């Protein structure tokens, strides 16, 4: 492709990037927009594991995390409708503004076919009150968060319609193409250099405004650019944890009443923040791969196909500032060590074995009530790869949750590792989301400000509105 120019260049076709383009169109901005995405368009995205039953480590990029709609296409599609969940934007633009933008952005998802039903909305319900009472006595906070659940297969359909809409409205969508470097001259961003991953052809796109929306997969790349070009940033928090899986019978009450139980605790002796995240009733534990082959655990659920288990992440938050300020690298090392112990696969261990100080064996998993929904996870010892502090936080938290959900800390409860969230490099931005470099915007999970579909999407909406004001 020859060098070209546009008004708005968006790097990354995840929710934050595509909602920037959507809102520019909805505002009749008449701007020329190019979205460049290293992965595939949505209809060519498929995870071979559905056929092979085993992760084949797709090259050059994992189909779960890259391609149109980013990590959103195969995500569980749970839109969190509360500002308290999914990112730190209330710190920057205020709680009420975030709520107003959530309502607006949710309306766009509905326009593109999202399910109208909202789960877990009624905090005055006696059953919710009873769960909250138990949470309080266990020293945990229960966060109210209404959820619109798209479901993995429906999320795919919604984003597929959005892709068509963008293309029909003149957005230039370039797939299989990676950004290599930004063009920054005299403190102003003027575009970026690209390489076509299929042909190896290199080219430049210059633009009036450049939006970097590269998600967790691009967090390392963005961190590197910040350091090289002096784009102001600060080390954020890193979340290290496990994916917990129990039988649905154990989780039935919270699944029915809340769908997702968002619990937060500060576990002694460290008092680090520990929380539940991304609960999937009747769901499946999933694997996602990052650059360099790092295998990380996640979870999702389908609208129709259900398993006998519920999975939920438990994440322990950690800060690093002086003298070491590279939380992404720290978390990567923890992940690599755990992957090494699992011979490149996700490790799984029973909670009871952790308390008894022994590894789990495959045959022990086979005779349990709880059968792993990630079939290629390897039974072993996650405590050999997890540092003491997060491990101790996770154990303490699981015991506290057991008071809210009896049976959660059962002997057979499964813990998969590593579950890591790479949103730790926090780029400094103003209330219009512009960075310290003029005409450069960083959005979504890669910017360190969001952790979920809704806040990533609304960040795109607000950027589009403010960009040319
Ligand atoms: C399995 C799974 C389940 C999830 N479930 C939920 C859920 O239920 N609810 C929820 O709120 N969130 C969920 N999430 C998280 C959610 O998907 C993300 O928070 C959201 O997608 C972030 O949007 P984003 O635009 O910031 O980045 P992403 O969606 O990660 O998109 C970034 C895009 O940028 C591209 N890119 C990166 N680097 C480059 C480059 N150099 N050049 C070109 N392109 C590049 C990537 O290929 C990617 O497509 C889940 C994530 C996963 C993986």
Overall geometry = globular
CATH topology of the largest domain: FAD/NAD(P)-binding domain
Provide the β-strand percentage band: 25-35%
Low-confidence stretches: none
The proportion of residues forming helix, as a percent range, comes to 25-40%
Q: Quick one: CATH class of the largest domain?
A: Alpha Beta
CA-CA gap between termini: 32 Å
Instruction: Give the ligands present.
Output: flavin-adenine dinucleotide
Count of separate structural domains: 2
Structural class: alpha+beta
- Strand segment count: 21
Average of the residue pLDDT scores: 92
CATH superfamily of the largest domain: FAD/NAD(P)-binding domain
Q: Largest sheet at a glance?
A: 8 strands, mixed
Radius of gyration, whole Å: 21 Å
Major sheet: arrangement of strands: 4-12-13-16-11-19-17-18
Q: Per CATH, which architecture of the largest domain?
A: 3-Layer(bba) Sandwich
* Number of helical regions: 13
């Amino acid at each position: 492709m020859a060098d070209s120019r546009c008004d708005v260049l968006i790097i990354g076709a995840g929710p934050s990037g595509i909602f920037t383009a959507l809102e520019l169109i909805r505002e009749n901005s008449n701007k020329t927009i190019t979205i460049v995405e290293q992965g595939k368009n949505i209809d060519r995205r498929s995870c071979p594991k559905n056929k092979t039953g085993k992760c084949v480590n797709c090259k050059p990029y994992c189909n779960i995390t890259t391609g149109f709609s980013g990590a959103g296409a195969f995500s569980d599609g749970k839109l969190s409708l509360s500002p308290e969940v999914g990112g730190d934007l209330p710190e920057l633009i205020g709680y009420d503004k975030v709520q107003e933008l959530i309502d607006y952005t949710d309306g766009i998802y509905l326009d593109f076919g999202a399910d109208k039903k909202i789960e877990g909305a009624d905090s005055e319900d006696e059953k919710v009150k009873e769960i909250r009472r138990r949470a309080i006595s266990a020293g945990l906070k229960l966060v109210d968060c209404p959820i619109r659940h798209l479901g993995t297969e429906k999320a795919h359909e919604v984003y597929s319609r959005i892709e068509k809409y963008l293309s029909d409205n003149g957005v230039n969508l370039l797939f299989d193409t990676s950004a290599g470097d930004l063009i920054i001259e005299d403190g102003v961003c003027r575009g970026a250099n690209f390489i076509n991953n299929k042909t190896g052809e290199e080219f430049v796109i210059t633009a009036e405004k450049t939006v970097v929306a590269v998600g967790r997969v691009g967090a390392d790349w963005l961190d590197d650019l910040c350091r090289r070009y002096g784009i102001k940033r600060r080390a954020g928090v890193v979340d290290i944890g496990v994916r917990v899986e129990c039988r649905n019978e154990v989780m039935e009450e919270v699944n029915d009443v809340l769908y997702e139980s968002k619990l937060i605790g500060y576990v002694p002796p460290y008092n680090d923040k520990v929380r539940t995240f991304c609960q999937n009733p009747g769901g499946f534990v999933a694997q996602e791969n990052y650059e360099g082959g790092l295998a990380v655990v996640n979870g999702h659920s389908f609208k129709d196909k259900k398993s006998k288990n519920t999975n939920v992440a438990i994440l322990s938050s950690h800060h690093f500032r002086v003298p070491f300020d590279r939380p992404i690298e720290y978390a990567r090392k923890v992940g690599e060590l755990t992957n090494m112990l699992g011979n490149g696969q996700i490790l799984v261990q029973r909670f009871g074995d952790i308390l008894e100080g022994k590894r789990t064996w495959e045959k022990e998993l086979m005779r349990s009530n709880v059968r792993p929904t990630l079939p290629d996870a390897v039974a072993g010892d996650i405590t050999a790869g997890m540092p003491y502090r997060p491990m101790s936080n996770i154990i303490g938290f699981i015991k506290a949750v057991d008071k809210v959900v009896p049976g959660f800390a059962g002997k057979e409860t499964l813990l998969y590792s590593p579950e890591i969230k790479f949103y730790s490099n926090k780029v400094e931005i103003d209330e219009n989301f512009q960075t310290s470099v003029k005409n450069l915007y960083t959005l979504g999970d890669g910017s360190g400000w969001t952790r979920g579909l809704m806040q990533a999407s609304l960040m795109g909406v607000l950027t589009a509105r403010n960009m040319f004001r």
